[in-house]
Design a protein that fits this description.
alpha+beta, six-stranded antiparallel beta barrel, globular, about 290 residues, seven-stranded antiparallel sheet, Thrombin, subunit H, about 35% strand
Length: about 290
């Protein structure tokens, strides 16, 4: 597993009672000022725990309350995480203060499974501290360091939970769900997780294509994402701006040139969703 991308800070006392604090995989962690999440994996060699990157901001204080103790630490999201650009690299670490001990990874085991070994249909499980239960499903695919699987979705507080393969080991960190909507109103959703290692950004177009293939949606027209238990929000194509890519501009120009020879509605309807709306605006301009 990669070393955490964090900023070192002076250690402080992390024990706030007489009992020795032992933080365990699957514990509920309160990131002060942000909310609650689940601990995915304990790296005892570095005295850090992994969870989802969207669970807090750089430098936020984190607390795990146990029987007779409060364990404290500092949260650091991945330096490569950018929620405005996509869903990739949604992971972070909590660097625990002095006196905090990390327990064994009793849910997944300490072994780590390489995503490259996963195949479509392989069984995948996830635990959420808020749900207080394990749910399992089938592996659907991978984009960069994002992994996707079909199965029940979690609830608020399950973010950051461990994703693993039974009998093999830890796989990734639960980060949310991604959803595609087809032209006939059909919906398909997949759970999403992140490997705790920085990887390439995942574009909305790539994610929509994977969703459409996995859920057999022939004409996807909308792409949405959400954290576990959250309300899905529509994802804009591209890098979060209203600019159209060079490929999109080329497609629109071809539509314009073809307009004198072919039926435009049929051509426009065949375009990818991210280029359809700009083409329609051009057509409307011709009619004004």
């Amino acid at each position: 597993m990669a070393a955490p991308v964090v900023k070192d800070a002076p250690a402080t006392a992390g024990v706030e009672s007489g009992a020795t604090p032992v933080v365990r995989q699957g514990d509920l962690v309160d990131v002060l000022g942000k909310g609650r999440c689940t601990l995915a994996f304990n790296d005892r060699g570095q005295n850090v725990s992994y969870t989802a990157g969207h669970c807090g901001q750089e430098g936020d204080r984190a607390v795990v309350v146990g029987k007779g103790f409060r364990a404290t630490g500092t949260f650091h999201p991945s330096a490569a995480m950018n929620e405005d650009e996509g869903t990739a690299n949604d992971w972070g670490v909590i660097r625990w203060d002095d006196g905090v001990k990390l327990g064994a990874n009793g849910i997944s085991g300490d072994s780590v499974v390489a995503p490259s070994l996963m195949r479509s249909g392989d069984p995948v499980c996830v635990y959420g501290a808020a749900s207080k239960k394990t749910t399992c499903g089938s592996f659907a695919g991978v984009l960069g360091n994002n992994l996707y699987w079909d199965g029940p979705s979690g609830k608020p507080g399950d973010s950051g939970g461990p994703v693993w393969v039974e009998g093999k080991g830890f796989l990734s960190i639960y980060t949310g769900v991604s959803l595609a909507v087809g032209s006939n109103g059909e919906e398909g959703r997949l759970n999403r997780s992140s490997v705790p290692d920085n990887g390439p950004q995942v574009s909305p177009e790539e994610e929509l294509e994977l969703l459409a293939e996995a859920k057999r949606i022939k004409t996807p027209v909308a792409h949405e994402t959400a954290v576990p238990g959250g309300t899905p929000e529509k994802v804009k194509a591209g890098s979060g701006s209203s600019d159209v890519s060079a490929v999109g501009i080329t497609a629109i120009v071809l539509v314009a040139l073809a307009g004198v020879l072919f039926a435009l509605p049929q051509i426009v309807s065949a375009l990818p969703p991210q280029y359809r709306e700009p083409a329609l605006r051009i057509m409307q301009g011709w009619g004004s």
